[in-house]
């Protein structure tokens, strides 16, 4: 009686299927990372379980952090949390906030009293729209920020990386304001333009130097390059530090960040869509597909022509090499022989073995 192996036994015994098994395991790892990191960013944006007492948003002229702030406000309102906006740059503030404190001319003690009077007993989200002003005017920045943090209160602050900041303390041993804020923050979100990110990826895949945009171009009069503050999406780098000290880093995309989309989401209290950067349709394209015209073909740059004409190709195919004759005369595996045509200058020696 012959017993045929089951299908699962065939799969376990074949080498190609073992390779495919490894691919399946790597895909499950990707799915696990995607699920874990998307759940983490959802908790951070919703400020659930006070997972991040102090969140630092670092933006630039390349990509503003306003869409991320609006996402925080929209999700806070959907959970009926109070949003307290500490403003240094505007008098009105974004839509959806419950209270605004104009802190441009406040001293440290006055700012603490004004904010403590506004903090509710329920869950409260405090947003600082410009930490550059605080870093340059208040010497004891850690004590000010952590005086507002409690189990029901969390902070979100924006730092503009393109604006130079003079430290409030004149000590040469004190760290830079941005370095100090990064040390204090439990979560750091650094914004990038979607258009610029795709172009940098395109250059890396072609082994070219990454292009520069905006101020980095060193072009007189240029502050923001074409493609900055892309309305199709906002790319941001997540760095979250757990209580155990383990850090989690991931590149993510907040989709559809135009003013109309942000206003519509706030009116419906619907959260925005956040995905991994590698899952974005524009980022998944091959190098050059996102910006090249259809039918455009890349050719190697050279000072001479590397292509063959049709006549040259036919002449090359018609050339018969010597070892072809040797194979046809005695066949493959018969030992072979050497074919040699004597020239005028050759001296034939009869005593030598016949060629």
Per DSSP, the total helix count is 12
Structural class: alpha/beta
Spatial strand sequence of the major β-sheet: 3-2-4-5-1-6-7-8-9
Rounded radius of gyration (Å): 33 Å
Distance between the termini: 64 Å
- Strand-residue proportion: 15-25%
Approximate shape: elongated
How many beta-strand runs? 9
**Which residues sit in consecutive blocks of at least 5 with pLDDT less than 50?**
1-26, 287-298
**Mean of residue pLDDT values:** 80
| SSE order | HHEHEEHEHHEHEHEEHEHHH
Largest β-sheet summary: 9 strands, mixed
Helix content: 25-40%
Your description of this structure?
With 355 residues, this protein is of the alpha/beta class. Helix content is 36%, strand content 16%. It is built from 12 helices and 9 strands. It has helices at 7-13, 15-46, 66-78, 108-118, 131-137, 141-146, 177-184, 194-205, 259-268, 281-284, 310-317, 322-330; strands at 54-59, 82-87, 99-102, 124-128, 153-160, 187-193, 233-241, 247-255, 274-276. The chain has a 9-stranded mixed sheet, sandwiched between helices. Strand 7 (233-241) and strand 8 (247-255) form a beta hairpin. The two termini are 64 Å apart. The model is unreliable at 1-26 and 287-298 (pLDDT under 50).
